[in-house]
Amino acid sequence: MSNAPRLTALDALHRSLGATMTDFAGWDMPLRYASERDEHNAVRTKAGLFDLSHMGEITVTGPQAAALLDYALVGNIGGVATGRARYTMICQEDGGILDDLIVYRLGDTEYMVVANASNAQIVLDALTERAEGFDAAVRDDRDAYALIAVQGPESSGILKSLTDADLDGLKYYAGLPGTVAGVPALIARTGYTGEDGFELFVEPRHAETLWQALTEAGAPAGLVPCGLSCRDTLRLEAGMPLYGHELTTSLTPFDAGLGRVVKFEKEGDFVGRKALEAAAERAATNPPRKLVGLVAQGRRVPRAGMAVVAGGEVVGEVTSGAPSPTLGKPLAIAYVDAAHAAPGTEGVGVDIRGTHEPYEVVALPFYKRQK
């Protein structure tokens, strides 16, 4: 196998825009185009345009597609209405998180599972293995789609100028087929920024046409192209977990404070059920650590892996950290011992290269948009 990074259908376009490219999960992706702070602020106040073609699409079809997904994933997927989407997870037998996913129900017997780029192969393999005995087919559709996102308060207005699809009737976590700028697309009202926005799944050969049309339609509203760097600060402010940081195979959804995605009430067994029932009990009675927000009192930026300290003891670990353009202070998400996890807990700091910098413990998310 060659180790050359995979290129999205928009690769030449990113380079023509002067993007700084980076390797991300084996893909060459735009990190930023100009200023990541400006890109971040554009999404919070106007709109931003993202290439997310590195995400992994897996199609599950057949009479038992719903039954397979109910068995393979922790969510109640059979209960998702056609045209709607659900945030869920796929876990190991021991309850550890293999990936967090969005599942779209495209039809009675057709679903699209969207996995993180770094886990797409793992999820594909797990679903294929778990499909044994079900009348359902699992198909790798990573090459069948390019994914373009428009995020921010102006995104709806920009998209409306290019489609006759009923965007006002499209709820959050819903998706419908339509045409955008003459290009057939699955239009989903989803995103990873904490703002209103849309994700558009299209054939790779149409990606450039769609990107250019959105760029032109969005120019008067202040839309700018955005890279992975601001996507990370946007999701951090919105308290959204990132696989490999807040979510790993050594953690269950209950450890991550996301136990709500595990649906014990659904019929039948599912992979990890027993381990997750035990994890739910632990989390309710004696949680080891809790996921919290930390807001810096100083200017130094916390990074993943740094120790959270209190009274000279290590009481947790930072999973994500960055300066927040919206709040104007450095922020961190961290797993902290339950005794120090309550919002407002005094005396908590982060060990930044030997100095214990003071931090305030807050509930997540740091930022919530005004609806």
From TrEMBL:
GO MF assignments: aminomethyltransferase activity; methyltransferase activity; transaminase activity
Q: Which domain of life, per UniProt?
A: Bacteria
Enzyme class, broadest EC rank: transferase
Give the Pfam families listed for this entry: GCV_T, GCV_T_C
Provide the residue positions that the database annotates as binding substrate: 199
Q: Per its UniProt record, what InterPro entries does this chain match?
A: GcvT (IPR006223), GcvT/YgfZ/DmdA (IPR028896), GcvT/YgfZ_C (IPR029043), GcvT_bac (IPR022903), GcvT_C (IPR013977), GCVT_N (IPR006222), TrmE/GcvT-like (IPR027266)
Q: Which reaction equation describes what this protein catalyses? A: N(6)-[(R)-S(8)-aminomethyldihydrolipoyl]-L-lysyl-[protein] + (6S)-5,6,7,8-tetrahydrofolate = N(6)-[(R)-dihydrolipoyl]-L-lysyl-[protein] + (6R)-5,10-methylene-5,6,7,8-tetrahydrofolate + NH4(+)
Biological processes, Gene Ontology terms: glycine decarboxylation via glycine cleavage system; methylation
Domain GCVT N-terminal, chain residue ranges per copy:
12-266
- Which part of the chain is the Aminomethyltransferase C-terminal domain? 289-368
Keywords on record: Aminotransferase, Methyltransferase, Transferase
State the signal peptide span.
none
Q: Which GO terms describe its cellular component?
A: cytosol; glycine cleavage complex
**In the Enzyme Commission scheme, what number(s) does this protein have?**
2.1.2.10
Whom does it interact with, and what assembly results?
The glycine cleavage system is composed of four proteins: P, T, L and H.
Q: What does this protein do?
A: The glycine cleavage system catalyzes the degradation of glycine.
Family per record? Belongs to the GcvT family.
Task: Quote the protein name from its UniProt record.
Answer: Aminomethyltransferase
Organism in which the protein naturally occurs? Streptomyces wuyuanensis
